[in-house]
Design goal:
CATH superfamily of the largest domain: Glycoside hydrolase, family 3, N-terminal domain
Shape: globular
Largest sheet: 5 strands, parallel
Structural class: alpha/beta
Helix content: 25-40%
Strand order of the largest sheet: 4-3-2-1-10
Number of strands: 24
Bound molecules: beta-D-glucopyranose
Length: 646
């Protein structure tokens, strides 16, 4: 403790000494981030670059203050891991941490010291293509993943929690679009993963593009100052998103770059990415202490990144790909959605298998959006991993369908989340052969696969799994791995149902198929196609004997099948009567249990006070009364208990 304090004092002294020798122009340089193309013409302290040790060393040599080099290392640098939405399906923060640790090490070896990850935006609308980059719809799962990524990356490079905040709530799922949300929903749904990242020690945050309740996030004092710095005591720096400072002009809150720069830095955005607006502050408009404060934050993180002590990177040949780790994470990210008559796992011999579909052998698509320095040619496809025969000769068909990698990620919103092109027709024709069909869906978002859910006997949701895609899919299809992943996001029946999420508020007229005047649609059945938290295994798990004892709730989980397996046991809480409407249920805990056939384990959760709180005008509040609690395999089913808060 004392040593840490001394260290902090020494760091502050070093920063103040640097600062005291800097001119205003030099200070603004530290707050300016550019790309490599811009670097020759715009003086900058921060660089967006894909790295390369020798190349970065060349740039760093003879600089008084080294550049902080940042890059989008989202789910891998050279070795590409599953997309974050896939990793969230593992419900295993340790795997998220592992993937970030490997990615960070590879990036660091290439001279990159900072990543624009993790993206911790909660997303309830699958039209929004960036749902691929986050952990899905739930704040508790999202917070666990956010903290894990931060820990993993920050073993070697600085992390950046983005996009602060509520960027995923874009109206109509259209990227960069307006967000309107209540303070309660902001606090309960969108902010918790950011808070978790801050508590995990994240070095930086990125401000979001959108306007939030009329105030652009990049000029939003409430977010950047009241909450982030005053409430959460965040000590790192905030970078704007690309061009977001200048875009304050388009938002209609600034007349020119100078006004935009004043608004952004005053609200608490320290570094201006790409648009070079902060250079205009040399003409005044902001008290110098405001600029000094931002510079101090940047210098502190440069020190933390080790840049002053070790500005250069060892120039070593790049290490081999970390395929083992990528395969392990990918195996745990695959969700089994349907398995009629135990069609899966496939026998390893005796059956001839055809592997078809536009994604069966598309190497580049395996990597998914944001694949940094990953190379498509190094990725393994399902066609390569599964011994196969031509369609005419086959006993069983494995159809690999879904989206190309460009269809999700940034600026990839869709008004229809159906299988693209005429893939459903292809599927219909495969079913018409009368041969058993296994559908493997690759996508960066939940797709509306109602037809498939009705007609295809086995469905596997594979997302984009990265470098080891094909091997991991084969591991699951042939039963070398018993799938345990669960959906981190609700699967709608049709696009018209989105936004759809499990932790919604009750309505005055709950859906009732017998009563027209209740909350539902005329043209699709009530509820999702597959609920949040859902996922099958090659074995079966029985839940029994829920007990509530004070603030401990427990239940038995038994492996009732004949294979060893792992189950992600989920605990939900509901507050049926409160002074405000509360969500019908909310995830508050989850645990992975490993069970041999016939083995039973008692799984116990401890309910914390914060699990019972909601955001009110008085801050976080828990009201006395009766609560419901569920322990179960998904958000849709489970054993129910109750308890009282006095
Ligand atoms: C994206 C960010 C990304 C940045 C830098 C922006 O367009 O919104 O997520 O980190 O570009 O590449």
């Amino acid at each position: 403790m004392f040593a840490a304090l001394l260290f902090a004092i020494a760091v502050d002294a070093r920063i103040d000494q640097l600062l005291s020798k800097m001119t205003l122009e030099e200070k603004l340089v530290q707050l300016t981030e550019v790309t490599e193309e811009q670097l020759p013409s715009i003086p900058a302290g921060v660089l967006l670059s894909s790295g390369g040790a020798a190349h970065i060393n060349e740039i760093q040599r003879n600089r008084k203050i080294p550049l902080l080099v940042g890059y989008d290392v989202i789910h891998g640098y050279r070795t590409i891991f599953p997309i974050p939405l896939a990793i969230a399906s593992s419900w295993d923060p340790q795997l998220a941490e592992l993937s970030a640790r490997v990615a960070g090490q590879e990036a660091r070896a290439a001279g990159v010291r900072w990543t624009y990850a993790p993206m911790v935006d909660i997303a309830r609308d699958a039209r929004w293509g960036r749902i691929a980059e986050g952990a899905g719809e739930d704040p508790v799962l999202g917070s666990a993943m956010a903290a894990a990524y931060v820990r993993g990356f920050q073993t070697s490079i600085l992390a950046c929690a983005k996009h602060y905040a509520a960027y995923g709530a874009a109206e109509a799922g259209r990227d960069y679009n307006t967000v309107e949300t209540s303070e309660r929903t902001l606090r309960e749904v969108y902010l918790p993963p950011f808070h978790a990242a801050v508590d995990a020690g994240v070095a930086t945050l990125m401000s979001a593009f959108e306007s939030l309740n009329g105030v652009p996030a990049t000029a939003n004092r409430h977010l950047l100052d009241d909450i982030l710095r005053r409430e959460w005591k965040f000590k790192g720096f905030v970078v704007s998103d690309w061009d977001a400072v200048a875009e304050l002009i388009n938002h209609g809150v600034a007349a020119n770059k100078h006004e935009a720069a004043i608004k952004a830095i005053t609200a608490g955005v320290d570094v201006d990415m790409w648009d070079n607006s902060y250079a205009t502050l040399r003409d005044g408009g902001v008290p110098e202490p405001v600029i000094d404060r931002a510079v101090q934050r940047v210098l502190r993180m440069k020190l933390r990144a080790g840049l002053f002590d070790q500005p250069l990177t060892d120039e070593k040949p790049s290490p081999p790909l970390n395929r083992d780790a990528a395969r392990r994470v990918a195996q745990q990210s695959i969700v089994l959605l349907k398995n009629e008559n135990d069609l899966l796992p496939l026998p390893k011999s005796g059956k001839k298998i055809a592997v078809v579909g536009p994604l069966a052998d598309s190497k580049k698509d395996m990597l998914g959006p944001w694949s940094a320095e990953g190379k498509g040619e190094e990725a393994v496809t399902p066609l390569e991993a599964i011994p196969h025969v031509p369609l005419a000769d086959a006993d069983i068909i494995v159809a690999i369908l879904g989206e190309s990698r460009e269809m999700s990620g940034e600026a990839a919103s869709r008004t229809s989340i159906d299988l693209p092109d005429d893939q459903e027709k292809l599927l219909e024709s495969l079913i018409a052969t009368g041969k058993p069909v296994i559908l493997v869906v690759m996508s960066g978002r939940p797709l509306a696969i109602s037809w498939a859910a009705e007609h295809v006997p086995a469905i596997v949701q594979a997302w984009f799994l990265g470098t080891e895609s094909g091997n991991a899919i084969a591991d699951v299809l042939f039963g070398d791995v018993n799938p345990s992943a669960k959906l981190p996001v609700t699967f709608p029946r049709s696009t018209g149902q989105v936004p759809i999420y499990y932790n919604h508020l009750p309505t005055g007229r709950p859906p009732n198929p017998e009563d027209k005047y209740t909350s539902k649609y005329l043209d699709v059945p009530i509820g999702p196609l597959y609920p949040f938290g859902f996922g099958l295994s090659y074995t079966k798990f029985d839940y029994s004997d829920i007990r509530v004892d004070g603030f401990k709730v427990s239940a038995n989980v038994r492996n009732a099948g004949n294979r060893a397996g792992e189950e992600i046991v989920q605990m939900y809480i509901g507050d049926p009567v409160a002074s405000v409407s509360r969500p019908v249920k909310e995830l508050k805990g989850f645990q992975r249990v490993s069970l041999q056939p016939n083995e039973t384990k008692r799984v116990t959760f401890t309910i914390k006070r914060h699990d019972l709180e909601f955001w009110s005008d008085r801050g976080w509040t828990a009201e006395p009364g009766e609560f419901k609690v569920w322990i179960g395999p998904s958000s849709a089913t489970g054993l129910e208990g109750k308890f009282e808060l006095r």
